[in-house]
Amino acid sequence: MLAVRVHEFGGSQSARLEQIADPRPAADEVVIEVRAAAVNFVDLLVIAGKYQFLPPRPFTPGKMPAGVVVELGSSVRDFALGDRVLAMAEHGAYAQKAKVMASLCRRLPPSMSFVEAASMALAFDTAWFALRERARLVAGETVLALGASGGVGLACVQLAKAFGARVIAGIASPEKAGLVLTAGAEGVVDLSAPDLRNSLREQVYALTDGAGADVIVDPLGDRFFEAALRSLAWCGRLVVVGFAAGEIPSVRANYLLVKNIEVSGLQISDYRKRRPERVHECLAEIFDLFERGVLTAAPTQELPLERFAEALRAVETRTAGARLVLVPGA
Questions:
Q1: CATH second-level architecture of 123-266?
Q2: What mean pLDDT is predicted for residues 12-32?
Q3: Which long-range contacts (CB under 8 A, 24 or more apart) does 246-250 make?
Q4: Model-level pTM greater than 0.70?
C-alpha cells in the first residue's frame, strides 16, 4: 500500500510517499481502508518531533482517519467488515490503510460522509472538550473563540452556539466575518487591530456591556493570550489549546487572583489515551448534533494522498482556503 513515511524528524520535506506492506491487526485491532484524513497543524509538530507524544520512527503521520473496516482482529466482536468508522488514531492516517484498536473506533452516522467525518475530527472534539470539560460552559454565558475562522475556532463557534452560549468570534481577516457569522457568532472582534493588548478588551467589553467573556478558547497563544486574558469576565475561564501564532506565553499568577479567573490547558491526545470513554461521549454528542443539522463540517478541499506535501505546506504557511482533506482512493 502507499503511505507517507517519516524516518527522521524534521520539516514537512522529511516526509515522503512510499510503498509499504499492508498492516495486519492484532487480536484487539481492526484495519480500515482510509477514505479521508484531514491535514492538521499538529501533524507538522509530530513530523518535526515537537509534539508531546511521538511515535517510534519510521512512522506514518496523520490523526483520526475515516474509512471502512476491511479486516478484524481475532477478538473483535463489536465491528463487522464494511462498517464505516472514525478511528481515534494518534498517527497512521496518511495512508491507504491504517490499523487501530477496535475500542478507539466509532461508527459514523448514516448521513455523514467520510470527508465530513475527517474534516470535523480533531477540530470538533477539541472544541467540545475545551467547552464542556475544561471551561464547564453554562448556557447563557458568553464565549470568545480566538482564531474563529480556523478549524478549532470555527468548531467552537458552532458548538458554543449549540450549547446555548452567546458567541463572539475573534478573526484577523475581515473577509472571514461572513463565515463565522453564518456559523453562529453574534459578534466579531478584530484580532489585527492596533494595540491588541487594549483594543481586544475594548472590543469585547463593547459587545458585552462591559462584562467581558465568560469563556475564551485560545488556539493561538503568543500576544493574543495576554490580550484575551484581559478580556475575561469576573470568574471567567480561558482554555489554552495551542500556540499556532508562535510564541508560548506566560501568565502572572497575581492577575488570576485579582480577577478570580482560571487558565487551563487542553491536551486532547491525553483524553484519548486516559479516558477514551469520555471521547466516545464527546463523539456521540457531536454525531447527534450533526444528524439533527445543528453542526456542519467546515468548507473542505479534497486532495489525493500524493499531494500530501502540498497540503502540509499550505497549513504551515496558512495559505489554505479551506479544511484540507487527503483522499487516498482519489
A1: Alpha-Beta Complex (3.90)
A2: 96
A3: 246/221, 246/222, 247/221, 247/222, 247/223, 248/221, 249/221, 249/222, 249/223, 249/225
A4: yes
